[in-house]
User: Which sequence fits this backbone?
């Protein structure tokens, strides 16, 4: 069943239009990679889905018209966002950060700590004192604590050491296999994305220009649209 469906979505920052026609579908339990070079509209698409900027066109989530909802209602419908820049409450402890995001469902503090054992080790530590990788794990943990049906990861491995990136990718793979969660993943590392994603949607200048099974994204297409 289709969980999220965007058709001909446009969006602007004030007078400056950034999206010109984004089409994107995600089925329940599916992992979709949102690809494109820098500045092509990936983060703006995420902001439109989360109702953080005004948008036009059609956006449906779990049978509801997203266009009619303010952002706090969109989150309550089951969209969990891990935004670029891994925002956590710096002065709260790891446990407090998790608990204050909690909503009923299968994901609680214990499940998040099983996914990221480092967070259990750092439970009483202030978020500000965590490493960048640990903060990213906490940001993912906070989004999972909301018990979303769709988890959106925007550049979750950006700027992290290779060993930490591997931990994040391993967690994404576990999320895919162990839960029915759908994922929308934005990342610059195509190789790792190809290992977890089912399909890809490619944006160019604010438009969807290619969509299909990620295995069919040939080196030619990758060079053309993603620059790798
Ligand atoms: P990156 O990989 O660099 O994060 P992206 O594909 O996520 O790129 P967006 O951040 O969505 O791209 O940007 C799409 C367009 O919107 C770009 O032209 C960008 O300059 C513009 N843009 C992004 N944020 C703003 C903003 N707050 N105000 C005005 N224009 C913006």
Assistant:
């Amino acid at each position: 069943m289709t969980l999220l469906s965007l058709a001909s979505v446009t969006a602007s920052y004030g007078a400056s239009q950034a999206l010109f026609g984004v089409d994107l579908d995600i089925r329940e339990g599916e992992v979709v990679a949102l690809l494109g070079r820098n500045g092509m509209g990936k983060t703006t698409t995420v902001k439109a889905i989360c109702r953080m900027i005004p948008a036009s066109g059609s956006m449906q989530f779990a049978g509801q018209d997203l266009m009619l909802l303010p952002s706090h209602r969109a989150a309550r419908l089951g969209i969990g966002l891990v935004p670029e820049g891994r925002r956590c409450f710096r002065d709260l402890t790891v446990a407090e950060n998790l608990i204050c995001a909690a909503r009923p469902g299968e994901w609680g503090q214990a499940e998040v700590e099983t996914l990221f054992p480092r967070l259990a080790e750092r439970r009483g530590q202030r978020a500000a004192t965590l490493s960048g990788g640990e903060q990213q794990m906490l940001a993912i943990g906070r989004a999972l604590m909301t018990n979303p049906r769709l988890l959106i990861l925007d550049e979750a491995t950006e700027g992290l050491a290779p060993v930490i990136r591997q931990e994040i990718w391993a967690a994404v793979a576990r999320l895919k296999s162990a839960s029915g969660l759908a994922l929308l993943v934005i990342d610059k590392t195509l190789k790792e994305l190809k290992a977890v994603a089912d399909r890809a949607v490619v944006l160019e200048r604010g438009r969807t220009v290619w969509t299909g099974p990620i295995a069919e994204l040939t080196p030619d297409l990758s060079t053309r649209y993603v620059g790798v």
Notes: Residues 2-226 form a domain with the Rossmann fold fold (CATH 3.40.50.300). The beta strands are 2-13, 16-27, 31-35, 55-61, 64-65, 79-82, 150-154, 182-186, 199-204, 207-213.
